[in-house]
């Protein structure tokens, strides 16, 4: 491996790249919000409520009661900034399989972060296995979120070159 490859692989994202990640994140999050509220509620009989998971997580782990607006803000920042930065780190520092695989893979990873890691810490069942249709809709929603966020980001990045 040459030095140029190593340096490029561990470079930090430029301000423009972070902005493009956030725009992709907003696109994915916009989809997620609609998907989690409407088709999920129809199919699973309950909407997905990420702010409630955030509130429960803080209560269970830190004994802190968050307001709904603060919990929504934390979920939104995760969806438009932190998860997109995670996608960038994974595809630039670890391994890229190319689009669309990178987006789908990252979306499934976000599902596991939310429901296999954070849900149990928040006092919920692992992968919400007590409500399988809700878990399935979360998987589908996260997968599409990941693909859409990555697609928009990569399209914006390609315009720069």
TrEMBL record:
The chain crosses the membrane at residues 21-44, 73-91, 103-122, 134-153. Keywords: Membrane, Transmembrane, Transmembrane helix. This is DUF1440 domain-containing protein.
């Amino acid at each position: 491996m040459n030095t140029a490859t190593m340096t490029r692989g561990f470079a930090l994202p430029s301000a423009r790249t972070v902005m493009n990640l956030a725009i992709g994140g907003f696109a994915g999050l916009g989809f997620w919000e609609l998907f989690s509220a409407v088709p999920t509620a129809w199919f699973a009989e309950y909407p997905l409520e990420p702010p409630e998971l955030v509130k429960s997580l803080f209560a269970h782990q830190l004994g802190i009661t968050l307001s709904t607006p603060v919990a929504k803000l934390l979920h939104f920042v995760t969806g438009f900034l932190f998860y997109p930065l995670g996608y960038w780190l994974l595809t630039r520092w670890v391994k890229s399989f190319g689009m669309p695989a990178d987006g789908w893979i990252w979306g499934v990873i976000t599902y596991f972060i939310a429901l296999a890691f954070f849900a149990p810490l928040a006092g919920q069942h692992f992968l919400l296995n007590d409500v399988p249709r809700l878990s399935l809709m979360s998987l589908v929603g996260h997968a599409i979120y990941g693909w859409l966020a990555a697609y928009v980001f990569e399209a914006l990045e390609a315009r720069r070159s």
